């Protein structure tokens, strides 16, 4: 939090965190965070879809007390807000995911930890006071996935999030142009070094991230393989990156507890339908059979309200958490989360919706 000359706190707008992160981070790291796949058409698609949605407030409702609190897969949250899985938080701040976990706990938000976290699951869990989920890519080395899942269970993680929109990492022009590789001092410490080796070592014109995924991700997995995950762990399973009603129905049939409707922050399929545009179809298809979360372009408290009106149970932010981290570690991430929660609480009052259950389809208009 910045302070004025008189010592008062100044609430920083999200773009202030973004500008500070851009200034502080090395160019190729900024590009890795900010960039998208292909033509980068999906970087703005989700944001544009959210901007098109307009709110329809009700009036003369008692909003003297608004409660943004909610429950998600057994966890109490201060608001329907979480942090999406993102690899290598130490690229943004030396404390990495430990700083993020502290902030999520302080703010009462969910944190989804990437399989490629740069701090150990145990250190992250020790710093966390709120719920943690573990994100997985499906590796060829299933033994390593099983080992990671066992460690997550022992550390108290509450759900597994399998990312299903990335059988391989898509072509990302900025990373290719920069020959982006993860710097050798920053590692996906929860996985064996030999399995992560391809992520390091820059080569002109090639992204090491893409090279690594082509080498290590198992792109042959299908719905039938989810049985293996259910065998290995009894934690609730969430699929991240589902964009159609057909896949949403299949997910429920396969015992999935939650879905993240997501375009992977514009980093995977170019020219896809935007996640907010897919939300209603997915919510209708699951018909209450599992929980639904939206991510991609969430930048204002009003976006949380719009997602709830479309039927989501919660939203997750990606890049804004990294901006907060780059700005000032734990304090910055807490600032980002509290900014969004404060805006959301105000939207609740102005919408005449004092609880999260008061948001429904009649609360929005889409052209
Ligand atoms: C730098 C970066 C790293 C990411 N790493 C992962 C990851 O490891 N696993 C994953 O499922 N998604 C990953 N994502 C995608 C996010 O989970 C999320 O879907 C996206 O960032 C949300 O959009 P937003 O950044 O516009 O809020 C990453 C995104 C960024 C920007
Ligand atoms: C290490 C990468 C696979 C993470 C990432 O950049 C992403 O998922 O977008």
TrEMBL record:
Which Pfam families does UniProt cross-reference here?
Answer: FMN_dh
Q: Name one GO cellular component term.
A: cytoplasm
Return the InterPro entries for the record: Aldolase_TIM, Alpha-hydoxy_acid_DH_FMN, FMN-dep_DH, FMN_HAD, FMN_hydac_DH_AS
Q: Which cofactor does it need?
A: FMN
Which residues does glyoxylate bind? 137, 172, 264, 267
Instruction: Please state which protein family the record places this protein in.
Output: Belongs to the FMN-dependent alpha-hydroxy acid dehydrogenase family.
What's this protein's name? Alpha-hydroxy-acid oxidizing enzyme
